[in-house]
């Protein structure tokens, strides 16, 4: 799933961006010098997320509404 944490056998935890049958794109969250084409990777089942307080969402929406 896009946005899911994935883990390389020989590298850091990463975030999946593109998951196709013949092409996978990830953002490495650390040193990826040992990762090569054909390296094994497994899904963790966890989605990358950042907790946000309701007050922050309201402030952003209010700013967007004021600009229109």
TrEMBL record:
Q: What Gene3D superfamilies does the database record attribute to this sequence?
A: 2.40.30.20
Q: Keyword Cytoplasm, does the record have it?
A: no
Q: Sorted alphabetically, which SUPFAM superfamilies does this protein's record hold?
A: N-terminal domain of alpha and beta subunits of F1 ATP synthase
Family under the similarity heading = Belongs to the ATPase alpha/beta chains family.
Please give the GO cellular component terms listed in this UniProt entry. proton-transporting ATP synthase complex
- State one molecular function term (GO): ADP binding
Instruction: Reply yes or no: does the keyword Cytoplasm apply.
Output: no
Q: Which UniProt keywords apply?
A: Hydrogen ion transport, Ion transport, Transport
Q: Which PANTHER family match?
A: ATP SYNTHASE SUBUNIT ALPHA, MITOCHONDRIAL
InterPro entries listed in its UniProt record: ATP_synth_asu-like_sf (IPR023366), ATP_synth_F1_asu (IPR005294), ATPase_F1/V1/A1_a/bsu_N (IPR004100), ATPase_F1/V1/A1_a/bsu_N_sf (IPR036121)
Note the superkingdom of the native organism.
Eukaryota
Q: What is this protein called?
A: ATPase F1/V1/A1 complex alpha/beta subunit N-terminal domain-containing protein
């Amino acid at each position: 799933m896009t946005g899911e944490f994935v883990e390389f056998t020989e590298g850091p935890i990463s975030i999946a961006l593109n998951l196709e049958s013949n092409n996978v794109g990830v953002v490495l969250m650390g040193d990826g010098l040992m990762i090569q084409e054909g390296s094994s990777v497994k899904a963790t089942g966890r989605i990358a997320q950042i907790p946000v307080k309701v007050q922050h969402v309201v402030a952003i929406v209010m700013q967007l509404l004021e600009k229109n």
